[in-house]
Amino acid sequence: MSSKVDFAPFQPLDEFLLDLSRFQAPNFRNIDKWTNRIINNLLYFQTNYFVMALIIFTLIGIYHPVDMIVGCLTLAGAITIFITISNMKQELKRFKKNYPIVGVLCIIALCYFFIYVLGSVAVFCFGIAFPLFIILLHASFRLRSLKNKMSNKMEYVGLKRTPMGLLLEGIGLEEQAAS
Length: 179
Prior knowledge:
Blueprint: H1 13-16, H2 31-44, H3 46-63, H4 65-87, H5 89-98, H6 100-116, H7 118-141, H8 146-157, H9 163-170, H10 174-178
Helix pairs in contact: 2-7, 2-8, 3-4, 3-7, 4-7, 5-6
């Protein structure tokens, strides 16, 4: 079993979207088969998907640069504040007890700020969610080829490790597709 991570090759546009690609609606009643198709397409077209997501995210960032930056900074700040506050419970309890009005004013100010930048947060989240939606749509409808199946078998037996394979393994989906 190889421990080295290899980047999957970029699949030609002909195979990804144009002449050689075949699309068909998945059988929504057979969730296992549909999940298998998605996972295998994620593994086979992973480099194409990463590039496509980066292009879409960049285009949204170019179209709404201020909103993307403000949304990113707001979410990063909110996460940082949450982690900081959750790590200092005793100090926070003492502060709220000693200065109740300051605590209420801080909450009101944070709520106002979050409502003020909500549009920017929505644009940033759309910049992440839209590429993921397009990837899921493509992976769901793209039929697998023989080349796709052989490449995925190499991933499953451990002859080749890729970033998408490690990601799917980390969330517990790769083993499901291999069985």
